[in-house]
């Protein structure tokens, strides 16, 4: 499986996890705040900032009743119509360039999720280096074709999608000629619970679709993301805000700056720890070998004395014979005087 490269950053098992800070609607309709989010993402060590490109009119209809109204008592957005929710959350299109420019200035990769074909055309005018496909659009085959045709890497969230739907999505992209696909294991609840995240799917998904796989994570904290990296995730996406206390459509399940820093550090540690299948002492461990237990004479002995449990023990350090020879050596006769603290060796015995 070949690495995928986005703006010079390689993504794959031989590279540290690619960390995406999802801004979404956490700018709270302030460009100044949006730019501050970019600054904090850079300070935290993220690789990329991701936007969402849509308008309320490209997402839905301006209707405030029936299926267009959110009345689910468990929803973070209860009491909003879909249209009003997207009005609150959308990132004005004229903000994209200054946000992209700020990312470039700070060494961050910036890309976006287009929600319809007009958004793809707009993002192409900004020369985005990659595209994200949201879970709710992963079965929108015309949109998949449009994005795939750009020839740029596609990072696809898999929330709610069946294996058959994902197969159709992946095949569609490949048939268009785009094999730069990264699938993100996603649970489309906000926030998501760890027990409903099923990250064991990650290695299975990699094997099934023969592509890079990561995690789009809506759980609280960084534990699920770290575990995902241990299972082979090469990309982690988390919503990011300056402070959950500031409110906003996504703030409840977004990381704050200190948490994003922890995510960057801990996922890299998890990746480093994967290493390779290895037994025996590593180079670094070899210096510790001397502190293993080994056999020592623990009382002064005269030539001709018999080795017993009282005068030979397995203790630290490790310069004597291995403890596995203990029973073999009991009853042996020493051929010379031996001081307490002498490591046991074969040449001590008759």
From TrEMBL:
One of its GO terms (molecular function) is N-acylneuraminate-9-phosphate synthase activity. Residues 294-350 form the AFP-like domain. Gene3D superfamilies: Aldolase class I (3.20.20.70), Antifreeze-like/N-acetylneuraminic acid synthase C-terminal domain (3.90.1210.10). GO terms for biological process: carbohydrate biosynthetic process. CDD domains: SAF_NeuB_like. It comes from the Bacteria. PROSITE patterns: AFP_LIKE (PS50844). This is N-acetylneuraminate synthase. The lineage of its organism: Bacteria, Bacillati, Bacillota, Bacilli, Bacillales.
